[in-house]
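User: Could you walk me through two proteins back to back? I'd like the raw sequence and the structure tokens for each, with a short line separating them so I can tell where one ends and the next begins.

Assistant: Of course. Protein one, sequence then structure:
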Amino acid sequence: MSPATPSSRTHKSLSMAQLALLIAGAASQGLKIGPSIVEVSPDFNSVFPFNNFNRNVSVASWQTNLLNGTSAEVNEDLEFLANATFITYDESFYELLGVNSYEDIKEIETIFTFPPPPSYAQRQIHDGTVYIPETDTIFFAELYSPKPGAYMHAIPFVWQISNASTTSATASKAYPSPALTIANGAHYHNGSVYWAQEGNWSTPGGLVRMDPFTLKTEPVQNNFYGHRFNSPNDVVVSDTGRAYFTDGYYGRDNFKDSLEPELANGVYRWDLQTGNIRMVAGAADGTLFNPNGVAFNAEQTRLFVTMRGFASGDADGGRTMFAYDITENGLANRQVFAYVDSGFPDGIKTDKDGRVYGAVTGSVDVFDEYGTLLGRIKVDKDDVAVNMVWVGDHLYIVGRNKVYRVQLNTKER
């Protein structure tokens, strides 16, 4: 058991004198700088105050390249954004943070740092964040993105954070039995954890139920009338016992660990009581290519689905959050809820007040119920937020490199 050693992070890289001097210049450029929060004005957001710039789709906004003809002075604005812990675009974001303005101090804790991946892998992916209130434990999966010429290995463990609601949270490995096969998304329902597992050449992907006390597992859904799923990614289960899960081409296209797909990728609805399964959204209607995360709103009347597209670095990639109304027949009234500017929206969560949280490169982006970007909760430099989970009024953020925790003025339901 490795003790988590929480540390708080604010904008402490500058002395107060340096900060005061730079604030005056930044304010004229449309930024308001506090100890940990940067507020971006509408003018700054609408007209980037740089002569010449460009940005790769796989990096965050504060990593925008300033090209020929841009003065060094305005570089400071991007440095402020890069060093901030929170970025505000709408004043209602302060209510969520539980502060009055950018001048207040707000902290985010670093709970745990992951060990490096094995030699055959190039980075880690952490997903499937799920909280068990009876044991005060968070579970989440670890995957390794293989280097070129390699393939994804099945991992016998998942991570757990014990005492998650306390200041003495600890991180360790847990070993489901039988082991999961490329586990990904997860949801807690009626005393069980439901995992979406990708599967591999020898094990069909699908949904696996795990007892959170004994860690015993059993497959509960692994086919669509004899077809293997492609590589299930994420799952949620409603209070009425209907599971919605995404199925994309990640296993074959990205990780080289599954059979050739024979189904369109999309969103399935599986009724735990009747066993009925049906696709309710997918590539067949021209929208969902490589769907990823799923989340209900607090009332479970809407379903949010994230989409990556073929690759997160493609300029024309998906990078989209869709919102659907949940009906007795399936899903209806699809709309583009948000299009993100950094990487692609991976994990997605909501809160009781209608906000939607998307894990992207460099931050968790927070939207109101209409899709307006309110602000960003940043992770460390060069980290990527992958997924989140609520523990009371604390939001745990699981990145590729670290686990973070921030207290917010809301909760899940």
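----
Protein two, same layout:
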Amino acid sequence: MRFKSIPLFKIAGIQVNLDFSWFIVFFLISFTLAEYFYPHYYPDHSFLIYWFVGGISAILLFASVLLHELSHSLVAIRFGIPVREIDLFIFGGVAMIEEEAPSPKVEFLVAVAGPVCSFLLSFLFFVIALTYPQDDLFNGIINYLMLVNFALAVFNLVPAFPLDGGRILRSIIWAKKDLLTATKISSWTGTVFAYVLILFGILSLIQGNLVGAMWYGLLGLFLRNASKVSYEQTKLSVILSKYRVEQFMHTVKPVLPDETISEFMMYHYPVYKTSIFPVIGDDGKIYEVSIVDINRVPQVDWDRIRVLEVSQPVEVYVSPYDTLLKALRLMNRYQINELPVVYGNTVLGIIKRDVIESLIERYYIQEKLQES
């Protein structure tokens, strides 16, 4: 069972969410700082003071992670790439950038923005530490944030996809080859790095460092899965970006304003058999009705109730010139299986999820046949 993320706030129009796994790492970081780091370097304080400072440090760490991800997001938006949200979770944070970069240059700039932000934050805390030389807990927080932002930048620059360094590597290869080849190579480096982390986890376990072994192992498994998933998503994006909605849409005649449910069920549904139908409103605007809503109306009322009366305004649609990738992403975002195809104020038809999935399946079958 997967819990929904907790929505926190919006920054520059980007929704920031908190995954429930964040509370695990928040506790572990606070515990490590309160029980080991601060007592070792700044002794003679109470238990409550250490835990308070540890909690504040953990929150500021994730504020730094948020700024790192926000940097990626703002650069992506600057180049017209939509960003749905930023999720903070057990391994830090991730910006949900919805489309691939249009060029290697944009890919490089989006990828490098995060490490640059973290290096700048590290330098900022270094300057603050110089201007505040007292050896107290506040100085400890400053030094911790300086070190952790530097470490965040360096770790993300490892050339292992989908880390920022892997995306930078991908942009460099992409400039010489194609996107899919670049993703395949950088994804392979991500898998290798993941296994290196898992190996470190095994060595830590042999040495009796259970906590270190757990973190190395979990991070390695996470990166191994993420590199594989990211490659498959890129492959999917490349496939579906080649095709336009007009090539696969199902032509559907709109329901007129005065047509009753009985007329609709007699003349429209048997012919088209889609789960949603476009309806022309009395005001000339486009509406849609779903079979689910129609079935909620008692059949004894079908002769007197117009389809328009159980219809809703069309809010999500695609144009015939949009890619199948955009159509699928809209379906996934709104958890629907069919989308109206609209050009101007004219309904042209319906694009179905199963048509897109059938195309993907045929592509993978052909790919397997070529490999064999």
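Residues 6-157 form one domain.

Let me know if you want the two compared in more detail.
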